[in-house]
Design goal:
Layout (H helix, E strand, L loop, with lengths): L14 H18 L13 E6 L5 H12 L3 E6 L11 H10 L4 E6 L4 H7 L4 E7 L5 H15 L6 E5 L6 H12 L3 E5 L21 E3 L2 H4 L5 E4 L4 H5 L6 H8 L3 H4 L7 E3 L12 H4 L6 H20 L7
Parallel strand pairs: 1-2, 1-3, 3-4, 5-6, 5-8, 6-7, 8-9
């Protein structure tokens, strides 16, 4: 089973942990392809989705994952809950545990919120995205999608383009890709790059290549991951203009000609088509964006099973 009790970020995962999750996800994907997409592996377990932020893909995929394993699922949003009355995260997770939660999946706008939750409950906590900090399950599904297409991860060259500064997806992917032996290049305007990200002094992140020249970064890339350009950041003056950002950093078919002939295009969603990615690229032959969504259910099934399932059981 996994060496970790909670899933807070991939810096806590060993290479063996990551490989175990990816291998288990393949079995879960087979379950999802059956006529009846349900197994009794987690019957009697309860998972609570505790979402303080809006979400579609992540919340629904966790719900589908738990239900496919026959777990009970409860969805809680901050709106309409005791959170509106001032209840703390600690008290909320204690209450959910007392009500029978075995797993609490939490998304929060504040970095570190899942770590705080884990300190106040005996239930398993899974980070579904916290502020600008981390999104480990997204990174795991990205790794799985890459391995699914290339058959390996070590030695791949992955370029992550866009708003790195505010991206929890980028941070978790940097940890995950580095752990499995892939090389990572980060590309963004200087104003959207965290200070020290290229020299190993940014939140303990490993060293990686950093550039603001996308045309150079994309040369011989095996995969290009576009990140959402958050319009609220542009409005606050982080880039000169949206038009300038599109001209320099949008993923287009012309730019992809510089990458390897079998290079993949990825995006964690939601997409701003026509901004960080051209529509014909988003829906083109190189795109694996829909595969990422499907694989997200399998990865979350794998995590839930490995955290709570019977190691000797069958799926």
């Amino acid at each position: 089973m996994l060496s970790v009790r909670h899933v807070l970020d991939l810096d806590e995962f060993s290479l063996a942990d990551i490989e175990l999750v990816l291998d288990t996800a393949s079995s879960m994907l087979e379950v999802l392809r059956r006529p009846i997409r349900r197994v009794p592996a987690l019957r009697g377990k309860t998972m609570v989705n505790l979402f303080y932020e809006a979400s579609t893909r992540t919340r629904v995929s966790f719900e589908l994952a738990a239900k496919s394993l026959s777990a009970d699922v409860v969805n809680v949003s901050a709106s309409g809950s005791s959170v509106e009355k001032g209840e703390s995260i600690g008290d909320t997770v204690k209450t959910l545990e007392a009500l029978g939660a075995d797993t609490i999946v939490i998304r929060h706008s504040a970095s570190g919120a899942p770590y705080l939750a884990a300190e106040h409950t005996n239930a398993t906590v899974i980070n579904a995205g916290d502020g600008w900090h981390a999104h480990p399950t997204q990174a795991l599904l990205d790794l799985y999608t890459l391995r699914q297409r290339f058959g390996r991860l070590a030695g791949l060259r992955v370029v992550i383009v866009g708003d790195i500064l505010h991206s929890r997806v980028a941070r978790s992917n940097i940890w995950g890709l580095s752990r499995v032996g892939a090389s990572v290049t980060i590309c963004a305007p200087h104003t959207l790059l965290p200070v020290g990200i290229g020299d190993g002094h940014c939140g303990g992140l490993p060293r990686l290549e950093v550039t603001s020249d996308l045309d150079r970064a994309i040369v011989d890339a095996d995969a290009v991951m576009a990140l959402r350009m958050q319009s609220e950041r542009q409005a606050s003056g982080m880039v000169p203009s949206l038009r300038e950002y599109i001209r320099r950093y949008q993923i287009t078919n012309d730019r992809l000609e510089r990458a390897r002939s079998n290079a993949l295009v990825m995006h964690p969603g939601p997409m701003n088509e026509g901004v960080e990615i051209a529509p014909d690229v988003a829906h083109g032959a190189r795109s694996v964006i829909q595969d990422q969504v499907t694989n997200g259910v399998a990865i979350r099934m794998a995590l839930l099973y490995l955290l709570h399932g019977d190691a000797n059981g069958t799926i």
